[in-house]
């Protein structure tokens, strides 16, 4: 097949040498079929080597980027494997494959734009995730040994020593929880898990999560009830693991913030009027609302509830952990193409609301 004619419908242009950008033609499976001279230069290899390779040998997450660039009809940022070299890449589907155009932007004196920041954040999050065991292991040791000492397994201690050990144990447990939620946020921002939708019993799932968290409200004067609308269809199609994490995080936010009062978890189907009012695509949705009469929030509290990066510069800095957890919830709900928001009535109650498609 003459790829030059496919590209330009003519044989009068020397495609190999005349184009300023790197141009590559690949088959649908990613195998490189044709390249021009510039491609060999910026990929730092020979044309022969390129034409016996797959595009995934050179570009990270190549096929996903190519399909996204083709769908969006605009450049995406592509990174060279194992090298800090970045390209503006466009992709167009033609006949039996894709035409790719690469422009090296690694050394350009441009201002960092949104796609560049996205790459940096992704790499930062992946770095933190890969180091999660290295971070958690020493803290787990501190938790374990301090608890053992507090239980007397290390021998008798003075009253003062016992007091210090209990402080160490309490603070290390809190640090372990904080680190765990920070890593969870990094995982949701990295979008490492794609939703796997299947049918599940939403009422049974929520009951099991509430039962699992008994220790969080044991000893508190908190009454939890689960209610469903008369016509609510409890069997829904969604990712059970993602939904479980969403409910778990929301429940933790409430139970760690209150010591008494009613906590009601309401499940309902979204009406057509509500779907239209929210500007959502027409399909079936489930709404999960978690309302507490004891969780009272001010306008200042609501400003940065889902943004831990902004809350550090606000008067609500002490609530950074809550913002980290809610930011994870927001990312998880977004992965299901849903919505999450908070409604608070001053001195009355606060509701954490989630809408997810369940068709």
Describe the protein.
The protein has 15 helices and 12 strands. By secondary structure, the chain is an alpha+beta fold. It folds into 3 domains: 3-106, PAS domain (Beta-Lactamase); 115-190; 198-357, Histidine kinase-like ATPase, C-terminal domain (Heat Shock Protein 90, 2-Layer Sandwich). A 5-stranded antiparallel β-sheet has the order 2-1-5-4-3. A 5-stranded mixed β-sheet has the order 7-9-10-12-11.
Summarize the structure.
The chain is about 45% helix and about 25% strand.
What fraction of the residues are assigned to beta strands by DSSP? 15-25%
Count, helices: 15
CATH class value of the largest domain: Alpha Beta
CATH homology superfamily of the largest domain: Histidine kinase-like ATPase, C-terminal domain
Task: Break the fold down into its secondary structure elements and pairings.
Blueprint lengths: L2 H6 L6 H4 L3 E6 L4 E4 L1 H6 L4 H4 L11 H11 L3 E4 L6 E9 L2 E8 L9 H17 L1 H19 L8 H32 L7 E4 H11 L1 H4 L3 E8 L6 E4 L1 H16 L4 E10 L2 H6 L7 E8 L6 H5 L4 H4 L8 H16 L3 E7 L3 E9 L2
Parallel strand pairs: 7-9
Antiparallel strand pairs: 1-2, 1-5, 3-4, 4-5, 6-8, 9-10, 10-12, 11-12
Helix pairs in contact: 6-8, 7-8, 8-15, 9-11, 11-15
């Amino acid at each position: 097949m003459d790829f030059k004619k496919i590209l330009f419908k003519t044989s009068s242009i020397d495609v190999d040498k005349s184009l300023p950008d790197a141009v590559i033609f690949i088959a649908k499976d990613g195998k490189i079929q044709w390249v021009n001279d510039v491609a060999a230069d910026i990929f730092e290899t020979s044309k022969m080597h390129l034409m016996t390779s797959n595009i995934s040998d050179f570009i990270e997450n190549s096929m996903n980027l190519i399909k996204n660039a083709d769908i969006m009809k605009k450049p995406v940022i592509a990174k060279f494997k194992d090298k800090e070299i970045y390209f503006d890449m466009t992709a167009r589907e033609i006949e039996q494959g894709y035409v790719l155009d690469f422009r090296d932007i690694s050394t350009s004196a441009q201002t960092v734009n949104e796609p560049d920041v996205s790459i940096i954040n992704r790499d930062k999050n992946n770095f933190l995730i890969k180091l999660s065991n290295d971070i958690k292991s020493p803290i787990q040791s501190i938790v374990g040994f301090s608890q053992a000492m507090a239980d007397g397994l290390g021998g008798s201690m003075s009253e003062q020593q016992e007091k210090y050990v209990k402080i160490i144990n309490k603070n290390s447990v809190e640090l372990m929880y904080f680190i765990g939620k920070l890593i969870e946020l990094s995982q949701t921002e990295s979008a490492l898990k794609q939703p796997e939708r299947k049918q599940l019993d939403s009422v049974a799932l929520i009951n099991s999560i509430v039962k699992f968290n008994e220790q969080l409200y044991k000893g508190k004067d908190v009454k939890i009830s689960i209610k469903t609308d008369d016509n609510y269809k409890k069997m829904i199609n969604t990712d059970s693991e993602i939904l479980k994490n969403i409910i778990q995080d929301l429940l933790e936010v409430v139970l760690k913030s209150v010591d008494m009062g009613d906590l009601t978890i309401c499940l309902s189907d979204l009406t057509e009027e509500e779907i239209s009012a929210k500007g959502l695509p027409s399909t079936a949705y489930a709404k999960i609302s978690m309302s507490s009469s004891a969780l009272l929030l001010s306008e200042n509290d609501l400003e940065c509830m889902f943004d831990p990066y902004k809350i550090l510069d606000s008067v609500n800095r002490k609530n950074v952990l809550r913002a980290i957890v809610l930011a994870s919830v927001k990312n998880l709900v977004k992965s299901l193409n849903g919505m999450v928001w908070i409604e608070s009535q001053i001195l009355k109650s606060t509701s954490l609301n989630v809408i997810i498609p369940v068709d």
